Amino acid sequence: MAAIAALTLSAPLPSIAADAAPAPAAQKPAAKPAAKAGARAAAKPARSTADIIATAPAADWRDVDPDNLLLMTLPQGQVFIELAPRFAPAHVDNIRALARGGYYDGLAIVRVQDNFVTQWGDPNADDEDAGIKGKAKPFPTGAKDHLPAEFSIPLKGVPLTVLPDVDGWAPRAGQVDGFPAAADPRTGRAWLAHCYGSVGAGRGNAVDSSTGAELYAVIGHAPRGLDLNITVVGRVLRGMEFLSSLPRGGATMGFYDKPEQRLGIERVALASALPPDERPALQVLRTDTRTWQELLEARRHRGGWFVHSPEHTDVCTAAAPVRTRPVDVKLNEPKSPAVKS
């Protein structure tokens, strides 16, 4: 069982100067001062985020390709995962082959580490850390037992909608096809970011030891330190409540100590393998639209209940909304970004 290294994140808080000069005593009413140039005004959004999403034009939504939609059925409910072939084509192809071959069916959630990840896979697989040779479930026909690491891709041609806000983990951050992503123009690389709901492929010590047979979802504070160290294969669109509310595992990085603590996986299937009338009709808000920009501004400039407007957003809090396609909406557009192998 490949473990994802736990991170201990700690940093001193920046110091704030407290030696502000005292305000001069008021001697007479003064004229209303003009607004300082460059000052950030906490402007209330003209519309609420809920209103922006509810009234978004049909063309601002894209259908999720059923061949990129993974349905994991747990006793509590279903988890819907959109795969990201643009960023991890080899892993996505392998996950598709594993799902088509029924590999995940009957496996288990083996790890739930508080504020970190929920991880699932074959509990009988080899334990690299303990040096134990297991009796792993064989891969189905078409699935590969070795893949290259897919930590990043060339930045050229990637349709990154860049956030104007500063990101502490990368020179640029934003959205690609609705997935949280980051990039570095100096290296010419782009990658998917580890945000809440991101799904990655567990690996061992070797950088090319992930196959997609073991997957995890981030259930806590975004562990961005994992960026560029693990292949991210997609993100959870719906059903996070079934992954984040599970009983936490033991002291060994959240792995369950006893077999009876594990949660069995009933089935994992691609939506494309289901009859057309049974496929979930999910849509993701396109992040290359005016609606998305308006939504970001509404999140950046908070009013109403908020006493203090943050005037800031980041790639992990700017998640692209998901909805079920209205029955009266039919789009003649690609269901999701097509990526050639």
From TrEMBL:
Top enzyme category? isomerase
Residues in domain PPIase cyclophilin-type?
A: 75-270
Signal peptide feature range: 1-17
Q: Which GO terms describe its molecular function?
A: peptidyl-prolyl cis-trans isomerase activity
* Keyword Cell membrane tagged: no
Pfam families noted in UniProt: Pro_isomerase
Q: Which InterPro entries match?
A: Cyclophilin-like_dom_sf, Cyclophilin-type_PPIase_dom, E_coli_cyclophilin_A-like
Q: Does the keyword Disulfide bond apply?
A: no
Keyword annotations from UniProtKB, A to Z: Isomerase, Rotamase, Signal
Identify the EC number(s). 5.2.1.8
Matching entries from PROSITE patterns are given as: CSA_PPIASE_2
The protein's name in its UniProt record: peptidylprolyl isomerase
Native organism is Roseateles aquatilis
